[in-house]
Amino acid sequence: MERTVGTLTIPYENAVANLNWIKIIGVGSCNVGKTSLIKHFCESKFTSNYQPTVGVDYGFKVENINGCDVRVNIWDFSGSTDYLEVRNELYSKTNGIFLVFDVTNATTFDSLDQWLREITQYSSNSAQIFIVGNKVDLKHNRSVNQNNLKKLLQNYKCQYFETSAATGEGVNDMFKAMLTTILSVKI
Ligand SMILES: Nc1nc2c(ncn2[C@@H]2O[C@H](COP(=O)(O)OP(=O)(O)O)[C@@H](O)[C@H]2O)c(=O)[nH]1
Ligand SMILES: [Mg+2]
């Protein structure tokens, strides 16, 4: 449709109202790949240079899920406990949380319990929680015990996804499943 530069064909309020706004946050220990997963989903990028997130990282994307346009706002919380106050603030009004561990680093898996306690304390009950085992491309270095993983998933009744931000394996599937679940609860 023709339009003059700087003007919208429909009022701004209507354009924005047509988009469902969704807030997703990524949590988990440092270095597990939260920023990389967001970058992959929002910008189809991957970098192997590690740049620790200071405080918070942000990405957004407009996605069409089952005929519904959604603007997804994704926040990457720093895994460092120094930023506890920032994280607690940002937990508010969250629709979905992806809790990431690194399948090659059992310590990051062991800390999931503590993260789940923090999540249940600070986020709203309606927030959908997904657990993500990232770095599955490093097949030979897997070190997380599968039985412990099964037990954790049974305890918390969360959906589980395996991803590689390096190859992209499972990344879009994970975010799309999150969005579909969030929309089905929201609408
Ligand atoms: N091999 C591999 N490396 C990854 C993957 N995801 C992230 N990384 C690397 O792990 C490091 C930490 O990633 P980053 O996204 O900054 O982690 P964050 O601290 O959780 O945000 C970086 O060097 C990434 O390149 C992955 O799926 N596979
Ligand atoms: Mg980060």
Automatic annotation (TrEMBL):
Family matches, as SUPFAM superfamilies: P-loop containing nucleoside triphosphate hydrolases
Keyword Nucleotide-binding assigned: yes
Domain of life of the native organism: Eukaryota
Pfam families: Ras (PF00071)
SMART domains: RAB, RAS, RHO
Keyword set, alphabetical order: GTP-binding, Nucleotide-binding
GO molecular function: GTP binding; GTPase activity
This protein's record includes keyword Transferase: no
Gene3D superfamilies named in the record: P-loop containing nucleotide triphosphate hydrolases (3.40.50.300)
Name by which UniProt lists this protein: DnaJ homolog subfamily C member 27-A-like isoform X2
Biological source species: Biomphalaria glabrata (Bloodfluke planorb)
